[in-house]
Amino acid sequence: MRGSLVAAGVFLACLGASAVAEAQTDYSQALQQYTSAIEANPGSGEAYWRRGNLYWEKGEYQLALQDFNSAIAVEPGYALAYLGRGNVYFRQGDYNQAIQQYNQALALQPTLMDAYYNRGVAQRAQGDWESAVRSFDQAIQLNPNFAEAYTSRAQVYREQGDYDRAIEDYNQALQLNPNLAEAVWGRGNAYWEKGDYDRAYQDFNRTIELAPDNPSGYLGRGNVYVRQNDLELALQDYDRAIALQPNYVDAYNNRGVAHRLDGDLARAIQDLNRAIELNPHFAEAYYNRGLTYRDQGDLDRAIQDLNRAIELKPHFAEAYYNRGLAYRDKGDLERALQDFKRALEWNPRLAEALNNRGISLSENRLDHDQAIKDLGRAAEIAPAFAGGASAMGGKSHAKIIGPRAKSPKRAVQKMKPPASGSAGESVLFFAASAAIAAILVFAFWRYRNRL
């Protein structure tokens, strides 16, 4: 009895000390205390799970996985260990395995809110939007005040192009937490994608106030400035985004676009080269560089880049259209008309393609009836083309990339301890445990000294 009493006291004392150290971000001390807790009670899944979470938070995913595996080995029914293991697989990009682990956690503990939420994050990363929405729905059902779940569901709606529903969810999240930067930022993106640049500007400004060291707010505001043709301010914001995150590929792409619109083609090429260097599969960067080469009159390089953009993104209607313009510039009308046709197959409302195909057919006396249809349809979609006004693929076709949705913060935070409550309540719980442990050890000392 004496040994078990002391072991229990040591175990609780170590857990309590480690929780306090972790709350104070003294990770080395917390790791030491969790290790002592495991040594005192190697059959505790909770101790392995807590140390695994700490390793995961530090980015040491293999050590975290080892601890989650150990937690499951000693307590096969410990749902939180499966949750932790799913988080490791998520970080490693193995979304299928992550979802399997979250499902196992939910089979063991059907009310585990974070498992629904994190499963939704993984499903969204896979592009399985319907499943992601269902998972976020379940998380919200368990906790209607779960602001991050509304934010993540809004991101799915935004990716689906349902901007109104996205804005509704962002608004709900901000009613629950007015300072949730991710929701303000996401709503700004939804407004920007809807063309409501004034509201987007307000939200990106607010994002910068809430998170001044996050480059996404500056990227978003820079995009608004580009749409408003205030290129000087746009370039300043892109510069700031890159200063905060030197490998921010979207910022290089967008700054390249801004330089091109400002007529500085050399700097545009330089930035787009850097974007492609950082992400060789970035279709929009090849596209934008192709447009810039065309501006310079380098049609062969323009076509080469537009070929690569289409290879990476086969449904890229604007790339087909602009390649058609480059072929027309080279005098290859047959290929130009083929590309206009392909552009319109992917986007039948691409007015510029209709207009330029109509002009090409008319000027070369190839198909007068089709030319009339194309020019009439172009003017119907975009009245600026009425009368057959030529649009030679001007600078409006540049591809600005909006701030992309990152993994929601909750997916990268330490998961909840088995006891419900806030982080502060967890520290209080383990501080109380440490006090109880001290009482147990003292009681044993008194008991031993009476013998």
Summary keywords:
elongated; Serine Threonine Protein Phosphatase 5, Tetratricopeptide repeat; disordered N terminus; single chain; mainly alpha; disordered C terminus; 451 residues
- Beta content: under 5%
What's the level 1 CATH class of the domain at 281-398? Answer: Mainly Alpha
| SS class | mainly alpha
Shape: elongated
Helix content: over 70%
Radius of gyration: 29 Å
Q: What's the number of extended β-strand segments?
A: 0
Could you give the distance between the termini?
A: 14 Å
From the 3D structure, determine the CATH topology of the domain at 281-398. Answer: Serine Threonine Protein Phosphatase 5, Tetratricopeptide repeat
| Model regions low in confidence, pLDDT < 50 over at least 5 residues | 1-24, 391-396, 405-451
- Please tally the helical runs, counting DSSP H or I stretches of 4 or more residues: 23
| Residue-averaged pLDDT | 82
What is the name of the CATH architecture of the domain at 281-398? Alpha Horseshoe
- Listing every helix as H and every strand as E from the N terminus to the C terminus, the arrangement reads HHHHHHHHHHHHHHHHHHHHHHH
CATH superfamily of the domain at 281-398: Tetratricopeptide repeat domain
Largest sheet: none
Topology:
Blueprint: H1 2-23, H2 27-40, H3 45-57, H4 61-74, H5 79-91, H6 95-108, H7 113-126, H8 129-142, H9 147-159, H10 163-176, H11 181-194, H12 197-210, H13 215-227, H14 231-244, H15 249-261, H16 265-278, H17 283-295, H18 299-312, H19 317-329, H20 333-346, H21 351-363, H22 368-381, H23 423-450
